[in-house]
Amino acid sequence: MTSAADRRADPRVHPEPGTGVSLEALRAAAQGLDGIAVRTPLVPLPALSALVGVPVAVKCEQVQPIGAFKIRGAYTAVSRIPAERRARGVITYSSGNHGQAVAFAAQRLGIRAVVVMPERAPAIKVDGVRRLGGEVVIAGNSSAQRYQQARHIAEEQGLTMVPPYESLDVITGQGTCGLEIIDEYPQVETILVPVGGGGLIAGIAAAATALKPEVRIIGVEPEGAAKLARALEAGRPVTLDHTDSLADGLLPLSIGELPFRVLSGKVREAVQVSEADIVAGVRFLYEAGLSVEPSGAVTTAALLSRRIRPAGPTVAVLSGGNVDPDLLQRLVYP
Q1: What percent of the chain has pLDDT over 90?
Q2: Quick check: is 319 catalytic?
């Protein structure tokens, strides 16, 4: 659980000026990721299609080299840091997948990476950062604590901050996922995207609507972390008192300022799923041969629970698969 104390410090860096992500920039990012990120498969799920009544395919970001979509944005951002600054190393704050992605990018580019992680971070994600050569610093459980510690280390050691979602380069990198969806499945009418800080849905919305303006983009978040829904209601990011869910990657207290600007006018819907829905989503995907973490299974959960009723061909983004094996066993074999 993230406490209200998070609000006492802003866990963000200042957004870059401008809020647009052009198709040209997205295609350049895709080119930069060639040989780094995988062009992940779209896998049809006939059983889910039959249940929902429209064709459904899942976008399998869990097969990325670090087990999550975060590699797209992290590598794009790290690779674009000017060489002289980049050589001094990078730092980030992360509950897991973004940290692994930054460590992966740093390893590929031959530089140092420090990742500030929460005490509650899943062991599989902490071990993943270390396996990729990243240095792990544990700092409490709130995003504010992680950010403050990361900022202190960055200033003290001359490292460049690579934020999880408050970066136009990160958002642009995540948007390459949307390019792939429209390219491979141009008839898609609805795309469901898990929502944490908002970088993924902002990037996908920018890419997908640039190629197909009428496509419907829907954010999916836990009932205990309904930050996009609150932001859409208010017309601006709103800080929640706390967030809590099995989906540990979707727990920021607020949607990011920059992601919200990018997605505004493109994303108009956000639905919430219960903890029981999330477990059912993980189990359904496992039985279909896909090992997906709770954060990545929320889109499938939304379809299974009928919280979303799409009218045409649908893609559900599975954002990651870094789930502790013991937890997975408990979820699929209760």
Answers
A1: 85
A2: yes
Active-site residue, selected from the candidate residues 3, 22, 70, 254: 70
pLDDT greater than 70 at residue 223:
yes
Chain segment 234-288, per-residue pLDDT in tens? 999 999 999 999 999 999 999 999 999 999 999 999 999 999 999 999 999 999 9
Domains delineated in the chain: 23-69+167-332 (3.40.50.1100), 82-161 (3.40.50.1100)
Pick the catalytic residue from 142, 167, 295, 319: 319
- The pLDDT value given to residue 143: 73
* Residue range 184-211: mean pLDDT, rounded: 97
Name the average pLDDT for the chain.
92
Q: Which residue has the tokens 């948007």?
A: 175
Cβ pair 117, 142 in contact under 8 A: no
pLDDT of residue 50: 97
Mark whether 227 is an active-site residue: no
